[in-house]
Amino acid sequence: MAPRFESRPLTPTTWDDLEELFGRPGGSIVRGCWCMYYRRSGKAPAGTDNRRSMCELVESGVQPGLVGYLDNVPVGWISLGPREEYAKLARSPIMKPVDDEQVWSIVCTFVDKAYRGKGLQGKLLRAGIDFARENGVRLLEAYPVDKAVRSHDDFMFFGSRSLYERAGFREVVRRSPTRVVMRRGLRPGH
């Protein structure tokens, strides 16, 4: 019998699962960032504890993403939420706003090294789409890598263009030879 995939929002109840996931071998990039990099507008002050900052965000009631599970074992993560919560995107030459539409941004996907190559990134993305739709989101936006040669897994946290195309996203602007802004409408009219 195939393992059962499910996702759960990151809350104080699922926090320990995210810590376990990020603490495994192959998680050094996410363990350093804790998906806080794009939430800050400038450089983080020396000594900033990203793990603590993310924990405080979750304790405040924000659900900044989903933890993915196979048979109740945490195996993946997708970080998404209202674009305005990611201050660094506004200043990015590649990911700056395309227009004034209200969008949610996907800024990271991560799959445990031991579970890669099993289609879990796509399952996390589909769960993220459902989560956004359940929260009344009309447009989802992503900033995937688009190049002929695959990058090292550690640098694919934005995902690949093909991952998003398979999920119904379409390119809306290209400001870099290797990066695109893609969107998917979740409601009629988008």
Summarize the structure.
The protein is α+β, with helices and mostly antiparallel strands and 190 residues long.
Fold and architecture overview:
With 190 residues, the protein is an alpha+beta fold. The chain has one domain: 3-Layer(aba) Sandwich (Aminopeptidase), CATH 3.40.630. Helix content is 27%, strand content 25%. The protein contains six helices and seven strands, in the order βαααββαβαβαββ. A seven-stranded mixed beta sheet has the order 1-2-3-4-5-7-6, sandwiched between helices. The longest helix has 15 residues. The protein is globular, with a radius of gyration of 16 Å. The termini are far apart. The model has no long low-confidence stretch (mean pLDDT 91).
Number of helices: 6
Could you say how many structural domains there are in total? 1
The CATH H-level superfamily is Gcn5-related N-acetyltransferase (GNAT)
What integer is the average pLDDT? 91
The largest sheet, given as strand count, sense and whether it forms a barrel, is: 7 strands, mixed
Strand order of the largest sheet: 1-2-3-4-5-7-6
Tally of strands: 7
Stretches with pLDDT under 50, minimum 5 residues: none
Helix content: 25-40%
- Shape type: globular
- Helical/strand content category: alpha+beta
Query: How far apart lie the N and C ends?
Result: 38 Å
Q: What is the alpha-carbon Rg in Å?
A: 16 Å
- Name of the CATH first level: Alpha Beta
CATH architect. name: 3-Layer(aba) Sandwich
Question: What name does the CATH topology carry?
Answer: Aminopeptidase
Order of helices and strands: EHHHEEHEHEHEE
